[in-house]
Amino acid sequence: MVIPPIALKINLDADIANAVSALIPPAANPIRRNIWFAEAHPGIDGSTTPLLSSRLIIRIRSGDQDDISVKLRPCTTAELPDRWSREFVDGDARYRIEADWSGPQRLLAASVVSGRPAGSMAAQITGTDPVSLLDATQRQFVVACTAGGVPIDHLVAIGPIASMTWPDIDLDGAPVTVERWTIADLDMLEVTMRLRPRPADTTAGFETFASARLSDLENTVCARGAQICAMSKTARVLHTFGGSGG
């Protein structure tokens, strides 16, 4: 069985300006984008986030670098058919399986990310059903890997969220990506470190290593005065704005 990479994530939602100053070198230039998430209209169950409740996340990013992604999170390897059991690249679409670790939470995620020309998605998202922007590989992923009844038609776009991303930041010797999101009264920061297993790694050994790295990363962030929160950026945005459709 292939051991999936692990993304170690730390979420911050307090005193963000000071956290940015503490974590980001002054000369570092961010990648700037606007982000939208697709959601369905509230269903008969009263959920304000029917798509998220079905474990499906559709994200559109536009600015310095554009892409659209479709993610199933959480998922299990058992529900991923053969084609979707390992990473591959199909034209502009890249499929990956990755574990998301944040605090005590351990989730597996499968996603298809499709690159687009810089700045192109912002014009397309206005007045458009976001599902129409998915490419063929992403549509095949949704059909093959999601349960029947997922509300995939007639979606609305939630956003824009102003995003700044600083890749390859050296945090006390650890390479991390730092991303800041702002929308209305929400101001959030996420620190991510991605780990890939070595050929000789076992699942247990790799996860033990990842647990130690996550603890070290949390200690490093807290030592710089940042306050860790439990909820992810995506969940915060969708739970706050999902009911309004934008």
Brief digest:
The protein has six helices and eleven strands.
Structure, explained:
24% of the residues lie in helices and 39% in strands. The chain is an alpha+beta fold. It has one domain: Hypothetical Protein Pfu-838710-001 (Beta Barrel), CATH 2.40.320.10. The chain has a 9-stranded mixed barrel with strand order 1-6-7-4-3-2-8-9-10, surrounded by 4 helices. It is globular, with a radius of gyration of 18 Å. The termini are far apart. The mean pLDDT is 91.
Strand order of the largest sheet: 1-6-7-4-3-2-8-9-10
Biggest beta sheet attributes? 9 strands, mixed, barrel
Query: What count of helical segments does DSSP give?
Result: 6
- SS class: alpha+beta
The CATH topology comes to Hypothetical Protein Pfu-838710-001
What is the fold's blueprint, element by element?
Elements: E1 6-12, H1 16-23, E2 31-40, H2 50-53, E3 56-63, E4 66-72, E5 88-90, E6 93-102, E7 105-116, H3 120-125, H4 136-145, E8 155-171, E9 174-183, E10 186-195, H5 203-223, E11 228-229, H6 233-241
Parallel strand pairs: 1-6
Antiparallel strand pairs: 1-10, 1-11, 2-3, 2-8, 3-4, 4-7, 5-6, 6-7, 8-9, 9-10
